[in-house]
Structure formats: structure tokens, C-alpha cells
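User: Please fill in residues for this 387-position structure.
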């Protein structure tokens, strides 16, 4: 039995999503910008998908910009509002545990002369809104805080930060890639001006995402070409991908509550069993987190070795963010919440998904303790732990 517990990295394309996409690869292949009937069939499909994505976010269809994924959406939000802003608005605020799509973009902005404040988080991975408030300057153009962390699953107080941003007349961006499909989303309740999501995290295809841009938000394009996406993102639309994202958004709206309850129950069963083992700790906040994510530290057992050993036993999991696999440095998220480098390197992220079955969780609970014990016996870290 293969047991996939890495749904935060990516999800399988739902069968209904695939069925919706297939006609647009061949029979209905027209360019959505063409005025003939073949093109207009594509345009109608894109418009319908835009409505579905907008419904997922409680937004207006005209506020949805399709991109090639969450990373591009984050880049468009940051560079579109900050890098091309007036000279007097050359400062942004973010947190130390953001996804690299935001952190690396912020670092690139610094090279262009933008000041960036990286606000710390507490030991559970939650930022204090008062720290955001204190970081604000007269020249602050943007605040960017993720809704749910991709490694530890913690949920940030976005609504409170949104109120602070509105009071100070500052644009507020939220990376909601790991929250979509796991939490109900309402951009008006959250108080965001920009919000990023990705299709392949919600059982849609890879290579397509979206940026919500509140009406009236000034946003400069970061690419140049045609007049697609209301002049905000040029390039021929990926019609099959957009159709797939639209269908995935419909299913997310339909299933978010039942999925959440089921996944939280399975995750709690999984955690209860593993946390009963010696030297195992939960990373993050036990209450304020998405229902599918569990990040655990296994003392004196290397995370990379655990991932490989568990894969050989049929279990797929992760040491953290998928785009950081193979990184030598310990997780920036885990060190930011106070873990030592060794503890961070001994941590695994398990993330469940809609297809996860209880028997898979039961099987994982049986396999993991023996693998951990074996690796601890072989690991030089166990010698240090014992002395």
C-alpha cells in the first residue's frame, strides 16, 4: 500500500476536474482572445471559471486575475504594488515565516531600494498584530502576511491585520495558497486587497493560479505583452488549466466543511498515536491551524533520512516546503519558532487530503514508530542525545 501524506506539496487532480478540462485540449481548443466561435467557446469557459474562483473567495469575477500559479500571484502582488510605487512609498512589511515566493520577492525588492521589515512570530508560529502595527511607517506601501503556513499549518490573525492596514490606508496582501479548500474564504471578512491561491493545492491542475485584486487597487503588471486579464497579466490564457481551476474551486466550496471535519479527526488520531512516543513534539499551534497539517519533531532522527526510510515503507511525507526539498539549511519556519537547527532538521510535515482513508492513517501509525526507532539507533544524534 502506498500512503500519500504530502497533500500540502500537491494534490491529485480530481476526476471531475479532469473531465471538465479534457474537451479544451482538443475539440474546444480555440484561443480565448479570438473573436470567432471557436475562440468564444474558450472565452465563455474562462469567464465561467472566473465566476467559480470568485465564488470561492466571495469576490467579484472582475477582481480575479489568472496566473501560472501561486508563486506568480505572490510576485505580481508584491512587485505590482511596491516596486513600481511612488518613491515615498518604498517600504513593505511581512513576516519571517512566509513562503519563499514572498520572502524571495521581498529580498529582490530590497535590491531595488525598497525597505522591508520582517516581523517575528511567537513560538506557536503566530504573528502579533501589534508587531505589525508598530512596524508601519509613513512610507509603507504593502503588508503581506500568509493566512495558513505551508509547513506548520498555523492560521494568522488576518482579519485583525486587515483592520490595521485599512486604518492606515496600506495595501494588504495575503498568501492563501495553503488555506484555500481547507478554510472558508471571504476576502471582505478578511479585509485583504490582494490574495493569492493555486489550483494544484485544491485538486486542480499544476501551472495555474489566481490573484484576487480588490476593485480600485492600483496594480502594475510585471510582464508585458497583450491586453489579457484586463491589462494585468499578458499572455494567451491557459484555457484547460483555468477551466480545471474553476471546477476545483466549485468542489472546494462544496466540500470545505465536510473535508475539514474529516481531516481534523484523522489528523488528531494520527498525532495522538505518534505524540505518545518518546522524543516526539508538535510544532506550531495545536488549535489555530488548518485541519490537515501535522508537523512533528523526532528527536535524534534526521528528517531527510526519515523521509527516505518512510518512502521505502510506502509512506510519502516531507521535511517541509516541497520547493525547499534538498535544502541544506534548516527550515526558516521552524527556526523562527524557536527550534534548534538539529530539531528543525529532525522534523517532518504530514499533510492529509480528501482521498486519505482511515486505514491509511492506521497503517502509517504502525509503520512510523519502528522506522524512527531504527534510525535513532543508527543516527550520531542519538549519541549526543544520550550524553
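Assistant: Residues filled in for all 387 positions:
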Amino acid at each position: 500500500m502506498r500512503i500519500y501524506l504530502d497533500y500540502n506539496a500537491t494534490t491529485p487532480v480530481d476526476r471531475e476536474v479532469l473531465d471538465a478540462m479534457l474537451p479544451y485540449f482538443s475539440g474546444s481548443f480555440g484561443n480565448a482572445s479570438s473573436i470567432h466561435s471557436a475562440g468564444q467557446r474558450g472565452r465563455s469557459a474562462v469567464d465561467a471559471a472566473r465566476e467559480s474562483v470568485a465564488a470561492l473567495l466571495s469576490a467579484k469575477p472582475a477582481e480575479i486575475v489568472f496566473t501560472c500559479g501561486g508563486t506568480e500571484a505572490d510576485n505580481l502582488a508584491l512587485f505590482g504594488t511596491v516596486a513600481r510605487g511612488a518613491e515615498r512609498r518604498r517600504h513593505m512589511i511581512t513576516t519571517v515565516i512566509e513562503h519563499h515566493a514572498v520572502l524571495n520577492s521581498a529580498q529582490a525588492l530590497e535590491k531595488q531600494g525598497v525597505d522591508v521589515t520582517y516581523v517575528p512570530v511567537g513560538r506557536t508560529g503566530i504573528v502579533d498584530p501589534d508587531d505589525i502595527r508598530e512596524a508601519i511607517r509613513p512610507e509603507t506601501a504593502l503588508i503581506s502576511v500568509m493566512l495558513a503556513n505551508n509547513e506548520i499549518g498555523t492560521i494568522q490573525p488576518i482579519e485583525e491585520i486587515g483592520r490595521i492596514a485599512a486604518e492606515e490606508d496600506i495595501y494588504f496582501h495575503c498568501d492563501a495558497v495553503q488555506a484555500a479548500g481547507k478554510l472558508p474564504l471571504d476576502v471582505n471578512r478578511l479585509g485583504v486587497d490582494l490574495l493569492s491561491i493555486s489550483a494544484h493545492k485544491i485538486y486542480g491542475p499544476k501551472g495555474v493560479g489566481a490573484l484576487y485584486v480588490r476593485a480600485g487597487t492600483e496594480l502594475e503588471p510585471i510582464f508585458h505583452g497583450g491586453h489579457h486579464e484586463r491589462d494585468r497579466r499578458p499572455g494567451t490564457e491557459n484555457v484547460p488549466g483555468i477551466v480545471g481551476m474553476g471546477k476545483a474551486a466549485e468542489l472546494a466550496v462544496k466540500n470545505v466543511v465536510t473535508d475539514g471535519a474529516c481531516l481534523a479527526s484523522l489528523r488528531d488520531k494520527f498525532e495522538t498515536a505518534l505524540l505518545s512516543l518518546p522524543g516526539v513534539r508538535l510544532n506550531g499551534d495545536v488549535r489555530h491551524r488548518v485541519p490537515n497539517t501535522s508537523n512533528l519533531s523526532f528527536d535524534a532522527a534526521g528528517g531527510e533520512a526519515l523521509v527516505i526510510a518512510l518512502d521505502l515503507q510506502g509512506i510519502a511525507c516531507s521535511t517541509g516546503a516541497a520547493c525547499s526539498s534538498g535544502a541544506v539549511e534548516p527550515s526558516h519556519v521552524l527556526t523562527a519558532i524557536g527550534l534548534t537547527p538539529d530539531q528543525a532538521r529532525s522534523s517532518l510535515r504530514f499533510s492529509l487530503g480528501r482521498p486519505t482513508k482511515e486505514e491509511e492513517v492506521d497503517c502509517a501509525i504502525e509503520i512510523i514508530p519502528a522506522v524512527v526507532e531504527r534510525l535513532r539507533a543508527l543516527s550520531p544524534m542519538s549519541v549526543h542525545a544520550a550524553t
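For context: The chain has two domains: 3-9+256-386, 15-251.
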